[in-house]
Amino acid sequence: MQNENLVQISFFNQLMLVHPRKKQNERSEASVQVSEYFVNAEGTGDKVNLSDLLGTVEKTSGASNKTKKQLRNLQSSKETLELPLNKQQTEKIQRGIAYEKTTAEVSCWKNIILQNQKAEQMVFPLNQESSGPKRVEQVVAGWKVQTPLEQEIFRLLHGSRQPVNDPVLTPVEEQSLKAMSLEEAKIRRAELQKARALQSYYEAKAKREKKIKSKKYHKVQNKAKRKDFLKQFDEMVKTNPEGALEELKKMELSRMEERMSLKHQNSGKWAKSKAIMAKYDDSARKAMQEQLQMNKDLTQKMVVPSDDEHESIEEGLETVPDFVNDPETVIDPVNPWMRGQLTHEEPEVSCVTAEEVQTAEEENEEEEIIGEFERKRKLRQADEEDLIPTEEERKKTQEEDEDEEEDVSEFNTLFRLMRSEKTREGSNQTRGGLNTAGEEDEEGLLSEGQIRVRSIEDLEVLDEVVEPRAIEEPSAPQTAAAEATSEPPHKKKREINLKEVLTKEAKAVRLPFLPTVVDEEERDEQISIIKEAFAGDDVISDFIKDKSRQEAAGRPAVVDLTLPGWGEWGGVGLKPPRWKRKRFRIKTAPPPPRQDQKLPDVIISEKRTASVASHQVSQLPFPFQNTAQFESSIRTPIGSTWNTQTVVKNMTKPKVVTKLGAIIEPMVKEDFIKSKTTAAGGKGAAIMLGENRRAKEGTKRTKILALTELPTA
Amino acid sequence: EASDFCLYWKWRHLYVPRNYDPTLHPFEVPREYTRALNATKLERVFAKPFVASLDGHRDGISCITKHAKSLSTIISGACDGEVKVWNLPRQECLRTVQAHEGFVRGICSRFCGTSFFTVGDDKTIKQWNWEAPGYGVREEPINTILGKAVFTGIDHHQREGTFVTCGQTVDIWDEQRSSPIRSFSWGVDSFSCVRYNPVETELLASCASDRSVVLYDTRESAPLRKVIMQLRSNTLCWNPMEAYYFTCANEDYNLYTYDIRHLDVPVTVHMDHVSAVLDVDYSPTGREFVSASFDKTIRIFPKDKGHSREVYHTKRMQHVICVRWSADNKYVLSGSDEMNIRLWKANASEKLGLLSAREKAATHYNKKLIEKFQHHPQVRRIARHRHLPGDILKQKRELREMREAQRRKEQNVRKHSKPGSVPLLTEKEKHVVAVVE
After folding, report:
1. Residues of A with Cβ-Cβ distance to B241 under 8 angstroms
2. What is the pLDDT of residues B257-279, one digit of tens each?
3. Comparing C-alpha atoms, which of A361, A360, A329 is closest to residue A347?
């Protein structure tokens, strides 16, 4: 009996080992052998087997079936336990887990770090509290419940909706006070009933009318409606100009829709069938004409008296191809067709809206003036930029005047095609430029040398030392300043290879003249189109002429300074004496030989001046996507000569501001990252100030009102 | 802002209404360009970074540390075991302590600014009071802990009374105990530097002699991870504003900024030094850091740029061993072999002291102008010009040639081997040998 009891106890001990955390009462009994699990085996050499133990377990009622089953399974299985992992591997696993944990923890800083990197201005030290006494409201508003006692108190207070500050009325009482009186509710209900009845009448009527199948009826109806509308519109113009303008806009929209759609164009199935009948049937002809008339009516432009003059001028100019007036600079790489005025207008519109927002915010008058100036400036600059291209384009227009009879629209489309290709090339170029700019960015290192700079004069000397290199580098053509910036740099450094240039030129020129040996129809078609387009052009002779003209322009002109002396005849067509001609006709020194002197197929422009070139940006800098962006960033002035004080202050504010003599402490985690496990009461400020409370109650009240309305309605 | 408004009303009798019509002020771009060019030139002319030199040590400076609460006080340790406390505005030594026998390897200030710790070659950690003892009282440490091996570095926790030392192991100590509460080792026999993360205060990083940088968490029982590089890192510094970035100064003349979440590739490789980089310290704003090198220069790097924005050197400054950025972001301190501590301005051309509102506005405007026209060749050229002594320049040129030769050789090898067998490695990937979990 005693033996059995002991075994039971030892089994209990073993079970306890499964949960090692539970504190164990150490048993100290006298015996020779002490097992490491504190199990005393009776007698020497006796081992407690699992089977010994299991016998008793089956009998005891206290043990659960589950454990019994597990033990039975254990008894039947013959497999040995796996060896534990060796120390290195366990450590590695531990390290891995710990690392994951820390990285996850550290990652919570990500948002804050990104935010700080993007911030326009950072003021250090962070989280600086203003020294000196605070107002009571500030202290109270920032106060949060922390201790459990406080939390409990606040839960009680907020939960019961008892007034915390001054016990006047509970919210429930206020609600009941705010509810409507009986009479009011009745009146309101009657009103609502009436409105609903009226609505249903109208609905029924509309349904009935809609069901009528007579076309004539609807036609008459529509006509009447339109007449009515026009009358109303005339009145509206007088009484409510804003509303009229809106209506006008709507009409304009419908006009646009009409112009876009194929409706009323005599192109539908019905129209086709009618067209067949038109020969014989008078009514069919009439119907078609009616439709066309409808189209005309709908697409007719609304005449607004104020813009009259403007439009008449435009109409007068309509014969000139419209691309002539387009500004060259605006190039939309995404959609080459949307060039010119449309794309030009968009930014202006955005400007206006931005300004409106600003004016709404603050400093309306001043900002408005500035905005106006900005617009003016843009206009002026656009004018200046247009000056150069217009000269070229004027020539084109002259040429076109000669064959004015030809259809202009076809030429327009062709020209646009060509330009779109150009823009594509341009975009490629800019992409190339970007790549090189990325390489350039790596070159953000200091240029270190042995020259010491002590004064501005030294800097000037530095200029001279480095300048020759700057002159050596540029060798490529540069037609306009705008183009210069967009050109990739490697092109400039590379020497001009005759063969390469020739191949490119040949492709462009020879195609129309090639005998069309290839049988492919598409190609033929294209070639024929191109031929047609350039039917009157002799490209090669044009090129030669152009080159000789440029060469002539580059040649030094003789400066004639001869003047008639005392007692000599003056006037036109006189020949001054020889000695005078010799003395006063000055020949300037010839310029250095042209770069394209020995290249018959190339024109290299000599317009680029070295003195200015050394101050110009030769390639698109890194963060900018295109030249327009970069130019606009340079164009907006930031100085106080052009901007008001506040604007200058905003534009020139430094990125990092530090306080003189203040120690900048590292970030403190508690200040920036709120732990997720804060108590419910700890989320917001515990005490709300009067205004806040009122506002919240206001929202509640409206909700309550809405609720009270429901049953009455 | 309200303050602007008040200012305006206060000075309104001086206010002259202006006409901002652009037709009256033409040529805005050329005029601003000229202003920008002038601003750049003036910036370079006024770039006089050297402020003062503190002399008094009788051996090379081995470490410098800032006072936690006072901007004007620093401590420096020398190679002869001497520790000096300096007053910066007065540029004088306040106190001299013979702290150790042999080198003073590391100094750190307690976060509250009441005491500081030093470790030295004599295997001791000593805690000293910031207050000097009274007249006639012997200079004695508050506590002395005798360790088993030489300590090579020490750093204090940001807010608690624990500190960490490194030597043969990385040990974490409680100030109240004389034996470490935990020590980490991971198959390495010595560490050269250990630093607490100032933001995530339980994180640690150390540089080991097996060319690795090891990360620890004091709450874990084992180190977290280590990254092995091609050459040894001398010191490292955590970014005080961005918790997961640290920068280590390497023997291979470069500095590497790592994100501890992605140790396999450094975020940025900062190269410009021409000799081993010995020390690095972040600016308290976390935007820049300063590095000291064996090539007798100190350089200032923006934290995300590969090249330095500034290089400081003087004729007399020898190998720079330690460098610190002052807590107000205005100055940089460097300690070098020839027994001097030098004080530099962090922004070379900055005017020190209080500025009037107009002066401030002018400097802001000039800075913005330089930034706006930074891509223009003349502005860029002038802004980037720095003087360097001849021998460093020569070394730089040599180094460039060597790199070029290496690159060429690599190219040739790639050309003459099976395609794909010699992979193209970026500069960032080249320097990491392995990341050990």
Report:
1. 113, 116, 666-667
2. 999 999 999 999 999 999 999 99
3. A329
* Residue A260: band (very low, low, confident or very high) from pLDDT cuts 50, 70, 90: confident
Q: Which residues pair with A525 in a beta bridge?
A: none
Whole-number pLDDT of residue A694 = 43
∠ CA(B281), CA(B283), CA(B287), 5° rounding? 115
The candidate with the shortest Cα–Cα distance to A630, out of A423, A482, A466, A417, is A482
- Hey, is the C-beta of A98 within 8 angstroms of any chain B C-beta? yes
- At A556 the pLDDT is 83
User: How many whole angstroms separate alpha carbon A204 and alpha carbon A212?
Assistant: 13
> How far off is chain B from A634, nearest CA to CA, in Å?
7
What does the H/E/C string look like for A230-277?
A: HHHHHHHHHHCHHHHHHHHHHHHHHHHHHHHCCCCCCCCHHHHHHHHH
Secondary structure of residue B315 in the 3-state scheme? coil
C-alpha torsion angle, residues A186, A190, A195, A198 (rounded to 10): 170
Count the neighbouring beta carbons within 10 Å of the beta carbon of residue A221. Answer: 13
CA atoms within 13 A on the CB side of B32: 27
Mean pLDDT rounded to a whole number for chain A: 69
Model confidence at B108: pLDDT above 70: yes
Residue of B nearest to A123 (CA): B285
Least confident of A101-115, A327-341, A381-395: A327-341
Q: Which residues contact B36 (CB under 8 A, 6 or more apart)?
A: B369, B370, B372, B373, B376, B379
Name chain A contacts of B389, Cβ cutoff 8 Å: 450
Within the 217-256 window of chain B, which residues sit less than 8 Å (CB to CB) from chain A? 217, 220-225, 240-244
Q: How far apart are CA A311 and CA A387, in angstroms?
A: 24
Digit-coded pLDDT (tens) for A533-554: 877 778 888 898 999 998 888 8
DSSP string, A273-307: HHHHHHTT-HHHHHHHHHHHHHHHHHHSPPP-GGG
Q: Which of B32, B282, B375, B378 to mutate to test the interface with A (most CBs of A within 10 A)?
A: B375
Cα gap A36→A13, rounded to integer Å: 12
**Mean pLDDT within A417-436:** 45
Whether A485 has its CB under 8 Å from any CB of chain B: the answer is no
For position A174, what pLDDT does the model report?
Answer: 73
**Residue B261 carries which side chain, given as an amino acid letter?**
R
Sign of CA dihedral A549, A551, A552, A553: positive
Which chain A positions have a beta carbon within 8 Å of B386's beta carbon?
446-449
Q: Which residues contact A74 (CB under 8 A, 6 or more apart)?
A: A50
Q: Classify each residue of B184-196 as buried b or exposed e, where b means 16 or more C-beta atoms within 10 Å of its C-beta.
A: bebebeebbbbbb
Which residue carries 């109409």 as its tokens? A315
* pLDDT over 50 at A444, yes or no: yes
The answer to whether B61 touches B340, Cβ cutoff 8 Å, is: yes
Scanning every residue of chain B, which has its alpha carbon at the shortest distance from the alpha carbon of A465? B381
- Six-digit token pair at A453? 């700079």
Task: Provide ipTM, 2 decimals.
Answer: 0.92
3-class DSSP assignment, residue B205: strand
Measured between beta carbons, which residues in chain B are less than 8 angstroms from residue A445?
Answer: 272, 306-308, 384
**What pLDDT does A512 receive?**
41
Judged against a pLDDT cut of 90, whether residue B336 lies above it is answered with: yes
Partner-chain contact A634 B29, CB within 8 Å? yes
* Residues of chain A contacting B264 with CB distance shorter than 8 Å: none
Say which residues have a Cβ less than 8 Å from residue B343's Cβ, sequence separation at least 6: B50, B51, B52, B53, B54, B88, B91, B331, B332, B333
Confidence of residue A416 (pLDDT cuts 50, 70, 90): low
CA–CA–CA angle A321, A323, A327 (5° rounding):
145
- How far apart CA A352 and CA A373 sit, in angstroms, is 12
What pLDDT does A371 receive? 67
